[in-house]
Amino acid sequence: MSEAGSKTHTVERGGELMWVFGTLFVALGVSICSKVNLGVSMIAAPAFIICEALAPVWHSLSVGVTEYIIQGLMLAVLCVVVRRFNWKYLCAFAVAVIYGYALNLFLWIMRDVSFDTVAMRWIMLIVGDSITATGVACFFRTYLPLQVYELFVAEIADKFGFNINKTKWCFDITLLVISVILALTLFGDASSLRLSDLTSSSFHSIGLGTIVTTAINSPIIAFAGKLLDRIFGTQPRFPKLKEIFGR
Fold first, then answer.
1. Shortest CA distance to 200 belongs to which of 115, 118, 116, 126?
2. Is 11 helix (H, G, I), strand (E, B) or coil?
3. Rg of the chain, C-alpha, whole Å
4. Inter-residue contact 18 to 141 (CB < 8 Å)
5. How many CA within 13 A on the CB side of residue 96?
6. Does residue 164 contact residue 157 with C-beta atoms inside 8 Å?
7. Where are the chain's structural domains?
8. 196-240 tens-digit pLDDT
9. What angle do CA 37, 61, 130 make, to 5 degrees?
10. Which of 74, 104, 152, 215 sees the fewest Cβ atoms within 10 Å?
11. 102 Cβ contact partners less than 8 Å away, ≥ 6 residues apart
12. What single DSSP character describes residue 66?
């Protein structure tokens, strides 16, 4: 029996389910990481930092809204880099809006959650990172519109023939650098930063946890993807929908 013939899936038609899981897992994972106060992921950090910086003058601004504004700007950058515009890119922005409100919901649900010890906070950071990375792996396995972050990686890899996991890693490093610059420049308190404190607390959502997340994110995505491929097929439950949104 061939390898393809011996491969079975618990859920054969999981294309749409991957999108739902992706949205919920990423929002939940980011919310968990934000509660441990060790530094959120390099992907989420710009939204948290900018929202905190604007809070004194824009009281109603939420992290979720900041998130989809940033993704809208990133979508414009993508169009310039790949030198094309696809109407499906607008769908990616719609997904970003949905994700933004899902993130706000999980942050609200977890508003009173706290982790008492540093050890427990590090454990929960890894848990949050793993959930987030699994969500990203789900997005890479659905035909439905991606968030702009995942769309950016997928389109750049496709345009220039890059390996998608390596492209994702480079993307993460770039956002890490941007996040550090934002944290050091937007608040005027860079002189108060003590590197020794970053192992147990964050500096405007940047901490040692952010560095750890950057290092482990892509490997976890690759590992989670292999597990997902054993459980879920990517065939659509609604083939006509795939004809519209299929990539």
1. 118
2. strand
3. 18
4. yes
5. 27
6. yes
7. 11-234
8. 888 899 999 999 999 898 888 889 999 999 998 888 776 777 677
9. 35
10. 215
11. 23, 24, 27, 64
12. H
